Amino acid sequence: MSSRRSDAALVVKLQPSRRMLVLLVTLHSLALSLLWPLYESLGLFVLLLVPLLLTSLVQSARRYALLTGKHAVTELVIKNNNDYLLGMSGGHYRQSALRRGSYVHPALIILNFASSEKFMGSFRGR
Q1: For residues 32 and 9, what is the distance between their CA atoms, to the nearest angstrom?
Q2: Which residues of the chain are modeled with pLDDT < 70?
Q3: What is the per-residue pLDDT for 19?
Q4: Range of 68's domain?
Q5: d(CA 36, CA 47)
Q6: Angle at 70 between CA 67 and CA 72, to 5 degrees
Q7: How many structural domains is the chain composed of?
Q8: Is residue 28 domain-resident?
Q9: Which alpha helices (H) appear in 1-126, and where do they start and end?
Q10: What's the pLDDT score for residue 64?
Q11: End-to-end CA gap in the chain
């Protein structure tokens, strides 16, 4: 048995989530419904918020639920020595470092990455 670390990388591929999409649509719909009472008192000013909420819904759904947005992470590659690569939806990878604000619970894992802004082109992380 060798004491060396394995050179193989752990690859986690993310998939689109229908639950996340339903959650985003529900929360944005709730926010839109809360604007109606404000319309009675503030008038047309509140109507300016409707396109902003709809734009937020589209961008959030594409990035987090459908994984098709410009900055959507579709793959996580963990190499030895805690080197991380974030695979983006366009097929390029970003070198990243894990931040201290990450959270691990048996039912939920939140990984907070500090990403370098350098794109790695079509580099395959494996």
Answers
A1: 44
A2: 1-7, 116-126
A3: 95
A4: 10-119
A5: 9
A6: 35
A7: 1
A8: yes
A9: 18-42, 44-47, 49-60
A10: 92
A11: 24
